[in-house]
Amino acid sequence: MSTDEVKSELRSFVRLTRGARSDVDRDAATTSLRDFLDYLADEFSWRRIAAFIPTATEPPIAPGIDDLVRDGVTVIVPIATTDGLMEWIALEPGGVFDTTLDEMRMPIPTAGRQTPPLDLDAVFVPAAAVDRHGNRLGWGKGYYDRFLESVVGDPLIIAVVFDADVVDEIPVEAHDRSVGAILTESEIVFVQ
């Protein structure tokens, strides 16, 4: 089986498992992810981070992201452009919940100011799956791989997934970018 076929099969499996997650599981994940985000922000004294607004099946980090904004952390979120890059918008309090869908059916804020992704303390990236070596499987469009390649400085790159999305091994290609930490509903793993 080719690397592309393995990645495609894994993405399909993750879509199925995430789609089957109950509301009770999502509520529990929301609470624990919120606590983890608060802990990380305090532990690392975050001032400015990049994050993403999750879809209905992704790990529910939106309430925790909103808490950070209300606590004075600048949180920027992406808007995908047709040229395969991302523009960044600084969230206002409550802005993570006031969204619309872009052409790719991804949630984006309806308000906020455009801002460059500079001086970041951390970057939260979505992932279909990740392994404990920090290899991340994205959704196949390459937006985050391109963005991570251009990041200035040394922010902590954190993949956000569910426990079930942490797998033994992710096949890696030259364009794939790894992460420095993994955040799930039950743990934070710092990659060595």
Explain what you see.
With 192 residues, this protein is α/β, with parallel strands linked by helices. It has one domain: NagB/RpiA/CoA transferase-like (Rossmann fold), CATH 3.40.50.10420. 29% of the residues lie in helices and 24% in strands. It contains four helices and 13 strands. Strands 6-3-2-1-7-10-12-13 form an eight-stranded mixed β-sheet. The two termini are 29 Å apart. The mean pLDDT is 93.
Keywords, please?
192 residues, alpha/beta, Rossmann fold, three-stranded mixed β-sheet, globular
Quick overview:
The chain is an alpha/beta fold and 192 residues long. It is built from four helices and 13 strands. It is globular, with a radius of gyration of 16 Å.
Number of strands: 13
The CATH homologous superfamily is called NagB/RpiA/CoA transferase-like
- The value of Rg in angstroms is 16 Å
Chain oligomer state:
single chain
Secondary structure category = alpha/beta
Give the count of structural domains.
Answer: 1
CATH T-level topology: Rossmann fold
The largest beta-sheet arranges its strands as: 6-3-2-1-7-10-12-13
Q: What is the name of the CATH class?
A: Alpha Beta
| Largest pleated sheet | 8 strands, mixed
SSE succession: HHEHEEEEEEEEHEEEE
Percent of residues in helical segments? 25-40%
Can you count the helices?
A: 4
Mean pLDDT: 93
* Percent of sequence in beta strands: 15-25%
Poorly predicted segments = none
Question: What is the correct CATH architecture?
Answer: 3-Layer(aba) Sandwich
Q: Please report the distance between the alpha carbons of the first and last residues.
A: 29 Å
Coarse morphology: globular
